[in-house]
Design goal:
It is built from two helices and nine strands; from the N terminus they run H-H-E-E-E-E-E-E-E-E-E. With 228 residues, the chain is of the alpha+beta class. The chain has two domains: 74 residues; 147 residues, Superoxide dismutase, copper/zinc binding domain (Immunoglobulin-like, Sandwich), CATH 2.60.40. Strand 1 and strand 2 form a beta hairpin. The longest helix has 47 residues.
Length: 228
């Protein structure tokens, strides 16, 4: 019995020493937890800094990209004007549009109906009034530089600013047209036609006869008005 008691005490002592050795070689729960937040905090801080830098760069890039588009839109604004054509009875028979061309000059386009088939003199006139039925209120051709009458193919010094030549009506009496005139303006200078009257004549402009090309009576009239 005494021998058995001594053996059991020896075994118990060996178990206690083994348990102590194992516990001393493993980190405590507190130690393992205390190291983790430091790692996560560092990673989080780096991630936030990186995100802020990327966002800032993105904002700068967006601002740089948008600025030229705004400048281009401002530079691209071109002045436009319109003219409603009426006949001797005061009925609207067409419309003419004027638009500045980026490279210089003014595009003139539109449609006039109720005409006889063939060529019809087409001019800007010096006054600002269209009074039916004969439209003599529009005065003579718009000619601020006091040049001789001519046609659109002439040099600027050999034509009136308002000399657009002729438009051509088809068999139905409808004239459709589009051309660019480099002598007139919609915004500045003595050749600015905004506010002027324009006339469609009953006959053809021969581009030679003075002072109006022998184009005959006035079939239609319109006042050129800026488009707001």
């Amino acid at each position: 019995m005494k021998m058995m008691r001594l053996l059991m005490m020896s075994l118990l002592s060996a178990g206690v020493f083994a348990s102590a050795a194992c516990s001393s070689s493993q980190p405590t729960e507190d130690e393992s937890v205390s190291e983790q937040p430091a790692t996560e905090e560092s990673a989080t801080e780096e991630g936030v800094q990186g995100g802020e830098m990327e966002h800032a760069e993105g904002d700068d890039h967006g601002a740089m990209a948008e600025a030229p588009a705004e400048e281009e839109a401002a530079e691209g604004e071109l002045i436009e004007a319109t003219a409603r054509v009426i006949n001797g009875e005061g009925e609207e028979i067409g419309q003419v549009m004027f638009k500045e061309v980026a490279g210089g000059g003014v595009q003139v386009s539109g449609m006039v109906s109720g005409l006889t088939p063939g060529l019809h003199g087409f001019h800007v006139h010096e006054n600002t009034v269209c009074e039916a039925p004969d439209f003599t209120s529009a005065g003579g051709h718009f000619n601020p530089a006091s040049h001789e009458h001519g046609g659109p193919a002439n040099e600027h010094s050999a034509r009136h600013a308002g000399d657009f030549g002729n438009i051509t009506a088809n068999e139905d009496g409808v004239a459709e047209f589009s051309f660019v005139d480099t002598m007139i303006s919609l915004s500045e200078g003595e050749n600015n036609v905004v506010g002027q009257a324009m006339i469609v004549h009953e006959g053809e402009d021969d581009l030679v006869s003075q002072p109006t090309g022998a184009a005959g009576a006035r079939a239609g009239c319109a006042v050129i008005t800026l488009v707001e």
